[in-house]
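Lecture 7 notes: from sequence to structure.
We start with the chain below.
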Amino acid sequence: MRALAHSGINSCIVKIDPNLTKRGCSFAISYDCAYTERVKKIFNNKAIDYGDIIGRNDG
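Predicted structure tokens for the same chain:
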């Protein structure tokens, strides 16, 4: 989250539905989906491992 905050992206840690992962109970970093490509670039540049990116449309 600090890496995202330093880049001006608001995020928070959330508990996600265990059915959405292969491992059951999990937590995730939630951020505005408009930043997905930027978040992936930040994580890759800082060698931060991440799993699946799960999107959700509330509209």
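Points to note: The longest strand covers residues 11-16. Residues 36-45 form the longest helix (10 residues).
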